[in-house]
Amino acid sequence: MTYEIALAGNPNVGKSTVFNALTGLKQHTGNWTGKTVELCTGVFEFNGNIFHITDLPGTYSMRSYSREESVSQKYLSENEPDCVIIVADSNVIERNLSYALEILAIQRQAVLCLNMNDEATRNGTVINTELLSKELGIPVLKTCAVKKSGLEKLKRTVLEICKKEPEVQNAPFTDSFPDNHALSALFLSKTSKEICEKCVSYRKNDERSGKLDRILTSKATGIPIMLALFALLFWITAVGANYPSEWLSAFFAFIKEKLYAFSDYVHAPGFVSGILIDGVYTTLSWVVSVMLPPMAIFFPMFSIIEDSGYLPRIAFNLDKFFSRCGANGKQSLSMCLVPDCRYLSLFCR
Q1: 300 vs 167, which has greater pLDDT?
Q2: CA atoms of 56 and 86, how far apart (whole Å)
Q3: 4: region left, alpha or beta (phi > 0 left; psi from -120 to 50 alpha)
Q4: What is the DSSP track for 42-77?
Q5: Do residues 291 and 249 make contact, with C-beta atoms less than 8 angstroms apart?
Q6: What's the CA gap between 280 and 286, in Å, rounded?
Q7: According to the model, what pLDDT value does residue 119 have?
Q8: Helix (H) or strand (E) holding 4
């Protein structure tokens, strides 16, 4: 048998990692909203059955406010896949549940995949999957896609859902789901909080995370810490990039001398050497020597900050400022990334 599967979830929940683990493909993984707008498809086989899986764009809502949300909503509404794998981050289950509830209002043939379960366990998050499954009316599984843990059970569950009649997978709350967008958002945020209070508990590790949140997102210390961190990040990048830039410039200058010598040796016309050496080579070597070092320093350091979980806190701190112009805090991170290397290159010349 052949089945159509959809993979949905918020950004930064390991959805693309789950997709790669199931299909064996090497899809690019990213944490930014809008990173994957087009639909990515793959195929995997299990127990003699063929599953065509479609990786939907990572979004926070199904209300069609952005292109990514429109793509996901349109696909789930019009294509009616045999099963939807909803990938959620076990560390922030309440936030992810709101999106899961929106999907269940459209598609009831689904399974909730609680990814990053190893991190949640280390952080002291305890999720009662049986009770959560009863509350949602769908199967709930714990996985760790990076370690490929729980994927075989996920495949078996998906196969069982695909073989059942659609009315069997019935979410108990969807009949009362409001049509109005504002009411539905309020309904979901109350509902998801109530479900988490029943099904999720936190150990002492979460107290430490809560104290850290109070420091990093407070009105008094949140913004100063953010500004100090980015100032340090840009300073390290600008100063540190000077040394490899000088090395690359010296290396390219050495190669340029050899190219001039070779041009004289073969008696190349002056306009040819001028175009190729003074034009193409000089421009390319200047761009590489100036742009490559700051990029090679900045992005790995920014990835460390991203993996630490500090970026959502930055978005939270700046959300009220960006909301005044009709945007949101997430866009502050994009604005930080776009001009960084352009400005840093000025310091490295």
Answers
A1: 300
A2: 10
A3: beta
A4: EEEEETTEEEEEEEPPP-S-SS-SSHHHHHHHHHHH
A5: no
A6: 10
A7: 82
A8: strand 2-9
Three-state SS for 115? strand
- Backbone angles phi and psi of 141, in degrees to 5: -130, 150
**Looking at the predicted structure, is the pLDDT value of residue 275 above 50?**
yes
Q: Is residue 102 a contact partner of residue 72, using CB atoms and an 8 Å limit?
A: no
pLDDT value for 189: 57
Residue 170 has what pLDDT?
45
21-49 burial, b if ≥16 CB within 10 A, otherwise e?
Answer: bbbebeeeeebebeebeeebebebeeeee
Q: Please name which of 137, 75, 141, 140 lies closest in space to residue 106, comparing C-alpha atoms.
A: 75
User: HEC profile for 289-341?
Assistant: HHHHHHHHHHHHHHHHHHHCCCHHHHHHHHHHHHHCCCCCCHHHHHHHHCCHH
Residue indicated by tokens 């979980």: 309
> What letter would DSSP give residue 32?
S
Q: In this predicted model, what pLDDT tens digit does every residue of 86-117 receive, in sequence order? A: 999 888 888 888 889 988 888 889 999 999 88
Domains and CATH numbers, the chain: 2-202 (3.40.50.300), 222-348 (no CATH)
Q: Position 65: which residue type?
A: Y
Spatial neighbors of 337 by CB under 8 A, at least 6 apart, are: 302
Helix (H, G, I), strand (E, B) or coil at 86: strand
Measured CA angle at 99 (ends 93, 102), to 5 deg: 135
Q: What is the rounded distance in angstroms from the CA atom of residue 92 to the CA atom of residue 200? A: 10
Do 63 and 69 meet the contact criterion of CB atoms below 8 Å apart?
yes
Q: Where are the beta strands (DSSP E) in 56-195?
A: 83-89, 110-115, 125-127, 140-142
